[in-house]
Amino acid sequence: MSGEPVQILRVQDGQTIVFNERVLKDILLADHVKDRPVVVVSIAGAYRQGKSFLLNFLLTYLRHNGQSSWIEDTSTPLRGFNWRPGSTRETAGILLWNEVFLMTNSKGEEVAVLLMDTQGTFDCESTMKESTMIFSLSMMTSSVQIYNIMNNIKEDDLQHLQFFAEYGRLAQKDNTTQAFQKLLFLVRDWNWGHEYEYGSRGGRLLMASRLKVTDGQAAELKTLRQNVSSCFSDIDCFLMPNPGKKVMSDKTFDGRLADIDEEFREKLLELVPSILAPENLLVKKINGRKISCQDLMIFFKAHVDVFKGGDLPNPTSMLMATANATNMAAVDKAKKRYMSGMTNRPRRNLDQLRQFHFELLAEAKKVFDEFPKMGGEAISSTSKDVLTKELEELFPHFYDEEKELIKLEKEAEEKRERERQEEKRREEERERERIAEKEKAEAREREIQREREAFKERETALQAQEAESKARLQKLNEDFDRERERAKETEEKMRSEIRAKGIEIDNLKASIQKTQKGLAAMQIMTEVIRFAANSVELARGCVPAQQILPAARSATQLNPAQYPLEILQMLRKK
């Protein structure tokens, strides 16, 4: 048989982690596996409940490479991880089987499979811190965490699981949900097969009933179930029957299948492949990314360093946790009393403040003493010392604050006094300036008064000049009006004369025209007479001489051009 279990981690003196880094490197950094995706199956739970015993059946399956014949040999003793019947611890720390099994999953991918065994929790040799670190590391580094519990899923099993998971999540600095991968509740020696049948089907029904959140549950029970469910990406459950009387009571039992009850063997045929069959191999992931053996080495060391660093809170037992909680509550209440009292502390007097602190400190201690606590006098005394130390450390803050206040007020008063003196000086300066301004204003007022009087004199003179000018203007206007009247009369007279002259001219023109007409008539008459004389011969005495002159006179009333024609007509008539 190749391979053996090797211890990669142990806790010394219940406090100090001893990490065998070289051994882990030899396993994970071997050339043929370091780059392979890794599957880590780990088992954890209370001590002396058959964890190593059951893990060896998974080892047997891997040795047979998953062939159906892996369980056919019923006479060979069970070998692998150290196990034995009894009541004292067998496994210490964290162990790995140093042979890495290369398996091909259902996707045709070759993966490296590791088996991890862990020290049982809550034995008489382990501290709460030791159990917490080992269980938390197991969850943090595995892809499948088998939680081995006895008989049933009990409330304390869930509480322990929640505590370990929260501690592991704190160590990973991962506040997100589903910080871990698969959790398998493996219920051993299930005695109520009539309620839930053995195997995965009955296990899932039991798990659903135990993790169910109902309206009638207390808030803490709801929170517990919600927290457990939120920590893992997948949760399953498997119910295993009792392996038989020989296994439980015969100290010569060596693990051969022939000595184990048939029903137990049948369920092994269901359980082991549900974890290690090709289609069920679950590769370890961190932040959703598959990791290799080489990556696991880095992460394992990083997780160990976190636990070794001392930054995580120190896990304690439930009693110690409760005792610490009650004492811390008492400390908190006493501190609140002190802080509340300090709001009414005397101000601006350091001696009174110090005396007030001592009185308030005594009151706070009394509040602490009267608070109901668990854990006895030792824890109470330690917590009271912590309270006293914290309050003594708080007081200098108030003292320095008051001292600083006094200093600031003194400085402020000195500053105000300087400002008052400066203001007084400035006020005196302003008063001098006001007096000077007043004198200047009075001088200016006198000057303005003189200018006003001079202006008034000039105004009076101008008014006299204006009156004189107005009088002259009025006289000029009156003279102008008289001249205009005379001009108007002269113009009217001239127009009358012009009209008279016009009439005279018109009369003259008429006279001239009349004269001209007379002259023309005379000329015509002369011509007529001449014409008549010349026509006598023609008329041969037909026209008497006495008729010629009247014809001439009539002709003078006609257009001269018509004279001869008119005369001729008259003559013809005759």
TrEMBL record:
| Domain GB1/RHD3-type G, first and last residues per copy | 35-280
Task: Name the PROSITE patterns for this protein.
Answer: G_GB1_RHD3
A Pfam family per the record: GBP
User: Which residue ranges are recorded for the region named Disordered?
Assistant: 412-477
Bias type Basic and acidic residues, positions: 412-460, 467-477
* Keyword list, A-Z: GTP-binding, Hydrolase, Nucleotide-binding
Could you tell me which SUPFAM superfamilies the record lists for this protein? Answer: Interferon-induced guanylate-binding protein 1 (GBP1), C-terminal domain, P-loop containing nucleoside triphosphate hydrolases
Taxonomically, the superkingdom here is Eukaryota
Alphabetized GO MF terms: GTP binding; GTPase activity
Q: Which family does it belong to?
A: Belongs to the TRAFAC class dynamin-like GTPase superfamily. GB1/RHD3 GTPase family.
Protein name, per record: Putative guanylate-binding protein
Specify the species. Rhipicephalus pulchellus (Yellow backed tick)
Top-level taxonomy: Eukaryota, Metazoa, Ecdysozoa, Arthropoda, Chelicerata
